[in-house]
Amino acid sequence: MNTTILLLLFAPLVGFLINIFFGKSLGKTVSGVIGTATVFISFLCTLCLFSQINSGAETIKFHLADWFTVGSIKVNFSFLLDQLSVLWLLFVTGIGTLIHLYSISYMHDDENMHKFFSYLNLFVFFMIALVAGSNLLIMFIGWEGVGLCSYLLIGFWYKNQDYNDAAKKAFIMNRIGDLGFLIGIFILGYTFNTLEFLEIKSLLGKDVISPSLLSIAALCLFIGACGKSAQLPLSTWLPDAMAGPTPVSALIHAATMVTAGIFMVTRMNFLFDLTPDVQNVIAIVGTITAVVAASIGLVQNDIKKVLAYSTVSQLGLMFLALGLGAYEVAVFHVITHAFFKACLFLGSGSVIHALHGEQDMRNMGGLRKVMPITFWTMMISTLAISGIFPFSGFWSKDEILMTAFHANIPLWVIGSIASIMTAFYMFRLMYLTFFNDFRGTEEQKHHLHESPALITVPLIILGTLAAVGGVISLPGNSWLNHYMAPLFAHKAHGEHHLDSQAYMLMAIATIGALVGIGIAYSMYLKKKQVPVADNEVQGLHKVLSNKYYLDEIYMAIIVKPLYAISTFAKNFIEKYLSKTVFGFGSATYALSIQGKRIQNGNIGVYLFAFILGICGFLIYLFNIRN
Amino acid sequence: MLLYVFYILSAITLGTAFLTVISKNAIHSAIYLVVCFFSLAGHYLLFNAQFLAVVHIIVYAGAIMVLLLFTLMLMNLNNEDETSKPLYTKFAAVISAGLLCLVLIAALRKALPENIEYVNSGTDFQSIKVLGKVLLNEYAVPFEFASVLLLVSMIGAVLISKKEEKI
Amino acid sequence: MNILETVGINNYIMLSALLFCIGAFGLLYRRNAIIMFMSIEIMLNAVNLLLVAFSSYHEDPSGQVFVFFTMAVAAAEVAVGLAILVSVFRNIGNIDIDNLKNLKG
Predict the structure, then answer these.
(1) Do residue A607 and residue A461 come from a single domain?
(2) What residues of A are in contact with residue B99 (Cβ under 8 Å)?
(3) What is the ipTM of this complex?
(4) Burial class (CB within 10 angstroms; exposed 0-12, middle 13-18, buried 19+) of C54
(5) A607 interfacial to chain C (CB closer than 8 Å)
(6) Strand ranges (DSSP E) for B72-137?
(7) Total domain count for chain B?
(8) Checking CA distances to A429, which of A179, A353, A539, C86 falls within 20 to 30 Å?
């Protein structure tokens, strides 16, 4: 058992070490295979653990080593493998393996492929630590670690300054959230004298703790989740993060890392259950993010940006579910989303690969014939994300909306609008990319090809999962809810009866999705519209194209004043400060010029000083004595 | 009787030490210093520390002084070679030494043992036998270090005084 | 029969203090490096004398053992110091310490 856990945890780390130190000499294919194999080992270990947990075994607590003890707080390197973490590990390592496999082919032309794989392995390692950690600090280590890997991978093509800026933006945005998370940890540690999840859970049941303090702690944790999961107002980094290689976008910025916020809130569900105010905040923030991101996604022309905004929007929906206390529904959507969004990203990567780096959908089109596998897998995923029966997204999204409908009608309305938009922009993407005639250059057209098997096989697997993933939580007979039941205090929210109201909601959702698809069909397939160039857009469209001017607003509100303060500091404070400091310097210099005279090199003088010093010392000593 | 011996020896010690310091000719200084060392050996004999007296004569009067004399001869210094120090330096030297003397005496007077009277218990504490035992038991490690020090200084002295080879 | 019964420890203390001061005076007064060495030897011997005196007074052999160590150190010091002086003399032609000013800052 312990061996399994150790293997699960350290296989990716070993892969990282091998690739970072010997990757260059091992060659591209070997380093790729090592990277993939280590993650696959982790996946197998997770399967082992999953089969145990699923068959009703006890929650596994694994103590690796002591870390430190401060006062009465004791923090250990220990891991907690329960239903939640094992489930999460399952799709992290599973999708991770597929994406590693995909990367072997996708990154094969890159000279730094070994570095790419070492970063990916390191990411998987930290993700496992994040998910499996049994206390907040281990989780925080993983949290920061995946942030670091995200930074490294966004800026993987470091020769492009824009990409570096995107990496820095992601890192800094995440820092803001991390600060909140850290403060939350401090508050919890201060309040409970422990950071272990299970101990906090049991203490929360017993002690009476000031609700306002708990609310602040929960809010701080949620700010951390906001940063990592790209919720408003910390959402702007995720679309920029698409600067990284496409497998990175698929693994880190769609399927796994960005869901860490969801994971954290789910992990701390016992805390959030006690703070309804914070839950309301979460639900509202999630809903607003969902609709705002979806509306921006409507007009994006970069294929990966569309998917990025779609990710933000879907994450918003998950937070909506979390805010309503329907943790298992959120987890369900995380899983299905991981399947279809990873598939979509990998599919877009396949398209980009075929077009030699072209990402603008205005220069695509008609790829359906040349790339059938990519097209069909992406089509299935698009249907899933749009919420068309019977694909996986239908079930999970439907449950979120159903929960929202029962809790709060306005939230349901806004969420539904977001999902209609989702259907629209996803089909817009499909139509622009795969239908009509090819709009790129002749040379690109000449090179069009279906991607090799290493790319298509993960696509097919993910596409299949995206199609049938919904079976794990069918309404009325939900394996997932049953599986996760021990984690949550109350009865599962998502377990709706299949009454007429439920059918009606499903129908509304499906009709909404079809409406979205229909608009996209009429605009982009029938009228063969192509989005206009960036500088010709007008009105609302322009606002959307500019992402509601969020970046500009941040620039004006935060960055500009900061620069102003810095300039002020540089021009005034620094000036006087440096004068003072230089004053000390020159005073010391002048003093030492004089002091140098004492050191005249004459031994006689030194001896005089020596003797007189002894005299002074003796006088002092014997005066003290008496 | 012994008191007179002590006074005479002390007078010789201090006188020759002073002569060592002030005599112009370096050879004379060395000779005076030898006399001074012999008188100190006499003091040791008064303490009944025969072994120490013998070692003192061998090391100081024998080895060290011979070394000093050899060096003096080697350098062939005449008293004209030594330019006298400026007057104020000499004056300062006298003042400083006087000050040190005053301070030392004042300090040591204060530090005098309360029981000045000496009581002889008759135990053997300074025969060669006892000294040898103490030296090789209690002080064995410093003893070894002293031997290493001597070896190192010997090598160092040879190395330093060797004529540099022209490269 | 011991000398201290007749003479007393305080006389020895004064003697060695005076001897020490003569050594210090020589160190300051002269500029011939060899004479300065001799002065240092005088100072060392003043200390040795005091050590022996107190060794007798306390009837403790440790004081005399320390005298041996002092002698060893003095011998080492003289050997190295004179070697340095010879080297200096060979290089600059005299051993006047006023000429040794390389330490000037």
Answers:
(1) no
(2) 612, 615
(3) 0.90
(4) middle
(5) yes
(6) none
(7) 2
(8) A539
Q: Give how far C99 is from chain A: nearest CA, Å.
A: 8
Question: A621 is written with which tokens?
Answer: 């000593």
pLDDT tens digits, A29-59: 888 888 889 999 999 988 888 888 887 767 8
Q: Which domain holds residue A110?
A: 1-213+220-256
Q: Which of A249, A237, A92 is nearest to A157 (CA)?
A: A249
Q: Which two tokens stand for residue C25?
A: 């005076």
Are A23 and A170 within one domain?
A: yes
Query: Is C103 within the bounds of a domain?
Result: no
Q: Tell me the average pLDDT across B4-15.
A: 92
CA distances from C2 to A323, A412, A506, C27, C52 (A): 101, 113, 120, 34, 13
**Do the Cβ atoms of B59 and C39 come within 8 Å?**
no
Share of chain B above pLDDT 70, in %: 88
Nearest to A190 by CA among A208, A170, A214: A214
Cβ–Cβ below 8 Å for B90 and C3: no
Chain A hits for B103, CB-CB cut-off 8 Å, are: 615, 618-619
- Residue B32 located in a structural domain: yes
State which residues form the domain around B64. 1-78
Q: How far is A590 from chain B (nearest CA, A)?
A: 29
CA A246 – CA A303 distance, rounded (Å)? 11
**Which residues in B lie closer than 8 A to residue A615 (C-beta atoms)?**
96, 99-100, 103
In terms of domains, do A146 and A27 share one?
yes
Same domain, B70 and B15: yes
By the 8 A CB rule, do A481 and A398 touch? no
Q: Do B99 and A618 count as a contact with CB atoms less than 8 A apart?
A: no
Site of tokens 């016992």: A270
- Mean pLDDT for A597-615 is 84
Q: What is the pLDDT of residue A492?
A: 47
Asked whether residue A384 is assigned to any structural domain, the reply reads yes
Does one domain contain both A439 and A375? Answer: yes
pLDDT at B165 over 90: no
Amino acid (one-letter) located at A304: K
Please say if the pLDDT value at position B77 is more than 70. no
Gap between the Cα atoms of A444 and A429, Å rounded: 19
Provide the CATH number for the domain around residue C41. 1.10.287.3510
Cα of first residue to Cα of last residue in chain C, in angstroms, is 58
Query: Percentage of chain A with pLDDT > 70?
Result: 96
**pTM, to two decimals:** 0.66
